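Hi L., both proteins are below.
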Amino acid sequence: MSVIEVNQLTKYYGKSRGIVDVTFNVEEGEIFGFIGPNGAGKSTTIRLLLSLIHPTSGSAKVFGMDVVSRGPEIRRDIGYLPSEVYYYEGMKVIDLLKYSASFYPGDHTQRIQELSETMELELHRRISDLSYGNKKKVGIVQGLLHSPKLLFLDEPTSGLDPLMQRKFFDLIRKENTRGVTVFFSSHILGEVQRLCTRVGIIREGRIVEISNIRTLQQNNYKKVSLTVDGSNPLSFDMPGVTNLQAENGTVHFFFKGDINAVLQKISSVQVTDVTIEEPTLEEIFMHYYE
């Protein structure tokens, strides 16, 4: 079942482009990565899905309900961590979290306690005394305290140190095994690769690719490095070869096509070393942006 259904969603701010004809689905229980550089339209998409802003055209549904007409109902089961967090500076962390919890039915005291311990958040400090990273931790606890069914994370790790980032990822995986669907927006590709199974790439407000990460890597080019024994350099002037570089008897290139053609070529000479790797998400991403 699709938790998020987006159909030709478009948003203009006056004459400025937000997003154009964006269409994708996010299935229940998946961690969906949404990647693109700053200004590509990631936050605009999230704000439209939360109905914090309204579309110029197109439509979107969350939990099968239209985001514009049923926004308040939808938001009860959503957790949201924005890229920038702002709070009442004079409040204590615990008071802010209790105030947030009061918008949702039930008692969330135990949950606040557990999440704060996981994220090493000091509940009795004032917001004004917190570093940017600690304010981000408040946002993480606030987004999760009501046990949402769907979680929107917009550049969630900025400000967190590497150890806290790892704890955060563990926490998100744990929530996901509990059945929470996660929409993970980031420009840090390594994070998306670690956490997500499927990814959408957005460029200048338009979706350029939606694919399983493994499929993206396998259907893209391969990275080949080859060291040949002896003075006969191999010529790799063949279809599918790009970015060819040779140094100290080692040849590096990207190859897209039937890998057997490369293997056949290699088998005709004495090879001392060869590696054939899948590209990183970063390299695939650059390929879409060049």
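That was the first. Here is the second:
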Amino acid sequence: MLEDEVITIELKSLTSLTFGEATDEEIELLLNAHYNGEIDLANYWKVGDTRLVQLTNLSSSQVTYVDQKMTMVIIGFNHDDLKEKAGERTKAAVTIQCRETFQRKGFHGNNALNNYDNDFNWLKVPMRQWYNQNFVNAMPETFNKLIKTVNKKNLKYHTRTDEAPIISEDKAFLLSVPEVIGVSSASNYAGTETLLEGEQYEYYKTSSNRVKYINNNGNKTETVEWWLRSPSSRFYGDGYNWMEIFTNGVITYSESHYSLAHSPAFCL
């Protein structure tokens, strides 16, 4: 039997496996086949599939979290732009997010910080470094090595929407307004901004999925407000307001030092 025939047989045996049922080795096999152009991963898994993942060594000098199990949920396929092509693919195979949230004060990782700089954007947020390093490294080895760096679109200013988006290279990231709710009619978020921060993930086309809960080792507890990476344009000249999702799943905004939750995403 030829080697490629063996691979085909192995892949066929995985067609009934969900994201949660597959072993680490099977996940790697499927992803390699996807990026080699042999399969489309979206034909094997589906949006909304979940997997319980153990996170270890979460704490850092910046943020203190206890090690915990987190339910990860698939929010989209072939959605995010890869920093570098993988084979002939320019899009990440799958985007995954923490279904529940960490609870942590302050969007910036500092509950005392009010930053009035109108040019204060996602690239300058200190917590972004924690997501891209500590959070990524806290995941199991297989996930850690398979995570793709993607290019995320971001607003450069809080108060201007006529600038081209700035690009961040992220292994882990918070979601933007349009990625969660699509086109926004919120008075503090101008419609033109939706052209600059990406498109809605399939998972969030179901509005009930926008309601998040605090994590309890893979289980849901009480509902919680959760941060987005989108700056608010509600108060012109003030750079300290950021968009968030309220406990009922509705878009709103808060000051950066408010105690809200975090639900990072990443791509494989």
